[in-house]
Amino acid sequence: MSEDRIMNERKKKLEDLRENGINPYPYTFDKKNNAKDLQKEFSKLKKEEKTKKKVSIAGRVMVSRVMGKIAFFEIQDQSGRIQLFASKKSLENYNAIKKIDNGDFIGVNGTVFKTKTGEITIDVKGFELLAKSIRPLPSEWHGLKDDEIRYRQRYLDLIANPDVKEVFIKRAEIIKAIRQFMEDRDFIEVDIPALQTIYGGANARPFKTHVNAWDIPLYLSISPELHLKRLLVGGFEKVYSLNKSFRNEGVDKTHNPEFTMLECYQAYADYTDMEELTEELYKYVAKKVLKTTKIEYQGKQIDLGKPWEKITMVDALKKYAKIDTKKLSDKELQELLKKHKITLQPYNRGLAINELFEELVEDKLIQPTFIKDHPKETTPLCKQKRDDENHIERFEPFINGWEIGNAYSELNDPILQEKLLEEQEEAGRGGDEEYHPMDKDYIRAMETGMPPAGGLGLGIDRMAMLLTNSSSIRDVILFPTMRPEEE
Q1: For 311-366, what is each residue's pLDDT tens digit?
Q2: Within a 10 A sphere around the Cβ of 377, how many other Cβ atoms?
Q3: CB atoms within 10 A of CB 140
Q4: How far is residue 285's CA from residue 178's CA, in Å, rounded to a whole number?
Q5: Largest alpha-carbon pair distance within the chain?
Q6: Nearest 10 degrees: CA dihedral of 439, 442, 448, 453?
Q7: Per-domain residue ranges of the chain
Q8: Residue 99 CA to its chain's centroid (Å)
Q9: Which residues contact 173 (CB under 8 A, 6 or more apart)?
Q10: Does the structural domain 160-308+367-475 have CATH classification 3.10.450.50?
Q11: What CATH architecture applies to the domain 3-137?
């Protein structure tokens, strides 16, 4: 039967219900029990054993079998499913049962028993339609497998695939555990603006919008960094933000234009303190959510509990790609770029090393690893490595070949900061679409005095992917960014 025909039939049932004085969309229902708890509480009943336990439950009808004077239903609430039994003999408004379709929400009161086949069941004594479903559900037996529909119409995905709901419950537990970890260490959670007159804190293309009241452009935040560091200037010593960031970049299995970040700053600390914080945070969250630090991700065994490897970017290239950049001239580096089909215009030695690392090393970093001491050209916001003018005190943690975060010993020299941002502005004029713009108010804040600090940013979506064994970032974002549907 076509969907249009099914919908027309259900609309006719709506009319019939209303004509018989039944409101198909009432306001409330006193739900006192859930399916999972009832299944657990009465699991030891003997077959055909009845109880006098009165229960009140509500949910969506997933299976319905009306057979004359008796009917069986299976309803699904947030916790799971349970079977209902209704009979004309014991249910005053039994005839209304015949108007119920798969997808409808109903509420029932009754007592619990176990059928002769061993099914925990509610003997319905009272019944109420709570919401009439006009559009039919996807096939009960085949579930919903089309990823395009699953991501675009997440409500159908959650109905048809209960395991999906568990992923997002676990994601909520992950975020709760992160907050607990940070607050136990005296970090204060703060908000930063999503709409900004000047974006900054990362090298990325922003989303641009317009505020009519002032007739000026605004940008969606690409990072909370510069606002959080302003708070260090203002006297906060430990701050963090769980926030949405927006970057106008490609979409793939680990990238979504809108994503969730944890970013934190600690006064009087440096990047070695951020290494310890990162490692301890991942261990804490894994233990809290999974009860173990050993996880399996897409067939790979990953141990978050062992001490994480620490290696410089230069040494990682030497170890994993057999490239010793200390011994290579600029001409030899350019030949390597050409060999591996890496385009870098204009050529820059530090950026060339970074590009080679990304191309040849990243995917080999399966176990938790800190890649430390990046070339100074990779960011204008980080302090120079002590006793090494060519590198900065920066690390990126990697798991499963993914960069899962970024951390610095934060630059707090306002004169040097202004110089580096001016160089970025020049790069932007030269055509670099991911340059870091000049933020004069940030320089003004830093001129007021900012304490030495360590800063850390971690991608929450990638953490959720790892801890839920999800193969795509779209599997851990309830409503991922999608191309508009064609009419």
Answers
A1: 999 999 999 999 999 999 999 999 999 999 999 989 999 999 999 999 999 999 99
A2: 17
A3: 12
A4: 7
A5: 91
A6: -130
A7: 3-137, 160-308+367-475
A8: 40
A9: 288, 289
A10: no
A11: Beta Barrel (2.40)
